[in-house]
Amino acid sequence: MSAPLDEQLGFAPDYDSPVPYMQRTRDYYAAIGYTTPYRWAHYVDTPFYQLKKPLAQSRVTIITTAAPYDPAKGDQGPGAAYNGGAKFYKVYDGDTGKQHDLRISHIGYDRKHTTATDSGTWFPLPQLLKAKAKGRIGEVAPRFFGAPTNRSHRVTIDVDAPDILARCLDDKVDVAVLVPNCPVCHQTSALVARHLEAGGIPTVVMGCAKDIVEHASVPRFLFSDFPLGNSAGKPHDIESQALTLELALGLLEHASGARTTMQSPLRWSEDASWKLDYNNIAQMSPEELARRRAEFDKQKEIARGNRAA
């Protein structure tokens, strides 16, 4: 018996393509009882600002959606369940000359396929400092900035993005590298990137949710086809993290216009079936959906209380 045609032709399985996070998210929330579809940010026109000087002379910052670890806010470690109590609602900054313990328990990353044991996969400051030491960039800005993962487009556009731009201008930032984690993080980072670019600061988004970032339309996007939570490279794989940052820096230098996407050549694994899992209601029982609805409502109440505090 001859092999199937796909096998004869060397085709990859149909599911081995970028995860459709927007549709998965719509279907998931509808399945747990939220019937009003979320409106993802969508633009066609995109601001684009060329580098003002070579990267070797530029001051570079990081904008992250990860949160500073706070032991008073419950479990935030590897494998922790979604922790709405660890969310932050205002832009924060951190000293790039110090070490930081940033975590992602407060957002919806891929908990099944992401270890969350290596912050180098979502916070590339160590690699950026190495790039500075090698002369690849001129200097690391004195501060990095935390962008709240706000579902409100208006708050991100009218409050958070202008706040981050003002802080970047205060620090004389030449270039910003944005690193999102969850689906909403990718939208937030895209909106902030657009605002920074309109304000004269070239940007590159390093992310894993291709559909969300391209729907929002950013100047430059480095796409890694990895599970959410690994936008800066594979865990405990320094070469992967170094290459991912270098690809982003190269994109800053060579993109000739807006809406430029580069896909990393790295694969998460030879088995792409991990792409079938994230928020896929086809794989969830009614009981599991009911449990998730109850947990989501609980976390919303926690988050609402923190926002009001």
Describe this structure in words.
The chain has helices at 5-9, 21-31, 125-133, 153-170, 183-198, 210-216, 238-254, 286-308; strands at 59-64, 67-68, 92-95, 102-103, 139-140, 143-146, 175-179, 203-207, 220-223, 260-263. The longest helix is centred in the C-terminal third of the chain and has 23 residues, at 286-308. Strands 1, 3, 5, 6, 7, 8, 9 and 10 form an 8-stranded mixed sheet that branches. A two-stranded antiparallel ribbon has the order 2-4. It is an alpha/beta fold. It starts with a helix and ends with a helix. The chain is globular, with a radius of gyration of 19 Å. The protein has a domain at 55-263.
Overall strand count:
10
Averaged pLDDT? 94
Rg from alpha-carbon coordinates: 19 Å
Q: Which residues form runs of ≥5 with pLDDT under 50?
A: none
Main β-sheet description: 8 strands, mixed
Percentage of residues in DSSP E strands: 5-15%
- Helical residues, percent: 25-40%
Give the terminus-to-terminus CA distance. Answer: 68 Å
Written as H for each helix and E for each strand, in order along the chain, the element string is HHEEEEHEEHEHEHEHEH
Shape: globular
What structural category characterises the helix and strand content?
Answer: alpha/beta
Please count the helical segments: 8
Organism: Bradyrhizobium lablabi
Protein name: Glycine reductase
Please describe the structure with a list of short key phrases separated by commas or semicolons.
globular; two-stranded antiparallel sheet; 34% helix; 10 strands; alpha/beta; single chain; 309 residues; 8-stranded mixed sheet
